[in-house]
Amino acid sequence: MELPLDHFRLIGVSPSATSEEILRAFQLRLDKTPDEGFTYEVLTQRSELLRLTADLLTDPESRREYENLLLNGKSGLEFSSNREVAGLILLWESGSPKEAFKTTRKALQPPQTPALGSSREADLILLAALTARDSAIQEQQLRSYSNAADFLHEGIQLLQRMGKLGDMRKELEEDLAALLPYRILDLLSRDLMDQESHKKGLSMLENLIIKRGGLEGNNKSEYKENLNQQEFEAFFQQIKPFLTVQEQIDLFLELQKRGSLEAGFLAFLSLTAIGFSRRKPEKLFEARRILKKLNLSGLDSMPLVGCLDLLLADIDQASARFSSSSDENLRDWLNNYPGDKLEAVCIFCKNWLENDVLVGYRDIDSKEVDLDSWFEDREIQEFIEKLEKKSNKIEIRSNLQNQQIENESSNKTSEDFDNTINNTDERRLPWPGGIKQYTQNVEIKENQFNEEYFKNKPLEFYNFLIEKIAELKFSFGEFLKDKEIINRSPYLIYIYVFLILFTIGIGIGFVRNNLKKSIKDESIAEKPLILIDENKKLGEKDIIQEIKKNPSTKLSSIPEKSASIISYELKELNIPSPSLEDISNLINGWLISKSKYLEGKSEINLSNIVSKGLIDRTIEERQNDIKKGIYKEINSQILKIDLESQTSSRIVVLVELNYLEKIIKNSGEFVNETSLTPLKVKYILGFSNKSWKLVDFVSGL
């Protein structure tokens, strides 16, 4: 049997080791015998192989001949059949568990299957279990969790087939169960082009949640020991952004059918998200029906339903919902709001959509919500017009039957299927401290919305007025169709005509005044801005100061004359409690150096501010690109940085990046481009050797 092993690796020394170093390593290997339970026979063979290797490498002539063989392309060592298992043990000890496992598994299969009950069989089975476990650990360190699970699964199957080492098989099964969340994350975070992996990860996620008893974790399962409720909630929040909005809707609806109330509420949010982002108002009705059926004690559903009413242009009903809220703080804020109440409702709805509804989906670009664009959308207008006509016909028909011409109360239910929403129980929202509390913790940011919704917006008000006039005309036309009413009260016709003319007169005067003001404001806004001289040359010191002052400065804005300064080495950050600016400078230095290295223009030399593991991962990424014949052009700009947590030894910050990545072949041919604005990244810094270093990061939060 030939194994991918040379004498230097076998004994654990470098090819440049001296005879004294070789003898010292030989003695250490003899003293450190594996104690996992191998037979005396195979351990004796292991010692003999080490002795033969030490003799060869300490003899000058033998070593010279062997080194010549290596230079001429010889690779691997031949082992006789009675020393194969000992050679596999040495291969495993040399740091190659994957190669050792594959060869051991092959040796246990026909026609090489050892005799039952023999020492060879016992040693091979034990070695297979040990190498499967170490192979999985090695893959986990590389974040290849799916591959790690494959090694564990194959090891378990092999032990089951051989009927040996029941305790060790149980340990592998526990390792496999603990690895499940990471496997799901690995599969779902891959490119959507890998549909097979994505579907497999989605199926595994659904099965995990079902076995746990829904999102609440009501059942006892083998996974709860490795993943308690708090850990599961954190895991699920990390998984959620890798699922599309439709995948989340399907998942949550299925879980709701199985009795998960938390899933029902998340289905409501997902339907609202797809309804607003895809301009599908019918989905808002579906979302409202789900919320209506949920028996969630502690949930103040009125503001949520009010937001849906607002999006469907039922302003009176939306105001009534908010007034019915059980949240005293919300009611006080509405009642004491300095502007119009409609403006306050719009602010709440806008923040709710931005912070709680449109976040956490793979195919929805979370950005600032524009309610104006929603109402200006032609399909939305047509849908609302049909809804209002239907509602008006129902209301007029009811008034005529009851011989009541008076206007109905503004807080009357807008639709027949929504007349029992006020009976919904109230409870806390899912996972306090985990998933956000969607109503009571909505942050009211008044400066994110126009100060006044209809003031200084003559065109919007004009459209609004035209719609109301059209409603009056429609109602008046329906009224004239009923001859009994005309015969009974002919003066009502004149009253309706007067009201219409009066409304038109007020609207024309209001629009005229506001148009004049708008034209004046626009003329002021159109004055030319003072231009900055961009041709001013900066010296090297100026550029460094600029980078330190503004870490998000784009490299492309620096003159080519001073490009050499980009490779400056950041000093160690040894302040016990660094500021956000210090942390931003450190991260920016990492981004600049990494982008230049992946582009092949410089070496990465950041060991004073970045951990070795992170640097090794970057080097491995570059080596893989070299094998593929490509390089990457990356432009990362820090837009925002917030401190999440800080201790004396660990700092976590949340950063939003303007991220652009181009993949280009070495020949110059463009391959692909990825643009993410913003890209949310969590950076983790650790304090060791009296300085702060970047140790890890998590993208796509």
How would you describe what is shown here?
With 701 residues, this protein is α+β, with helices and mostly antiparallel strands. The chain has three domains: 2-188, no CATH class; 243-453, no CATH class; 540-699, Roll (Nuclear Transport Factor 2, Chain: A), CATH 3.10.450. 56% of the residues lie in helices and 9% in strands. The protein contains 26 helices and six strands. It has helices spanning 7-11, 19-31, 40-58, 60-71, 84-93, 97-107, 119-141, 145-162, 166-188, 195-212, 229-239, 245-257, 261-277, 281-293, 302-311, 315-323, 328-335, 341-357, 371-376, 378-401, 458-481, 483-488, 491-525, 540-549, 580-598, 612-628, and strands spanning 2-3, 77-78, 630-646, 650-665, 670-688, 691-699. The strands form two sheets. Strands 3-4-5-6 form a four-stranded antiparallel beta sheet, covered by helices on one side. β4 and β5 form a beta hairpin. α2 packs antiparallel against α3, α6 (97-107) packs antiparallel against α7 (119-141) and α15 (302-311) crosses α18. The two termini are 49 Å apart. Residues 393-463, 465-489 and 515-568 have low confidence and may be disordered.
Protein topology:
Blueprint: E1 2-3, H1 7-11, H2 19-31, H3 40-58, H4 60-71, E2 77-78, H5 84-93, H6 97-107, H7 119-141, H8 145-162, H9 166-188, H10 195-212, H11 229-239, H12 245-257, H13 261-277, H14 281-293, H15 302-311, H16 315-323, H17 328-335, H18 341-357, H19 371-376, H20 378-401, H21 458-481, H22 483-488, H23 491-525, H24 540-549, H25 580-598, H26 612-628, E3 630-646, E4 650-665, E5 670-688, E6 691-699
Antiparallel strand pairs: 1-2, 3-4, 4-5, 5-6
Helix pairs in contact: 2-3, 3-5, 5-6, 5-7, 6-7, 7-8, 8-9, 9-10, 12-13, 13-14, 15-16, 15-18, 20-21, 21-23
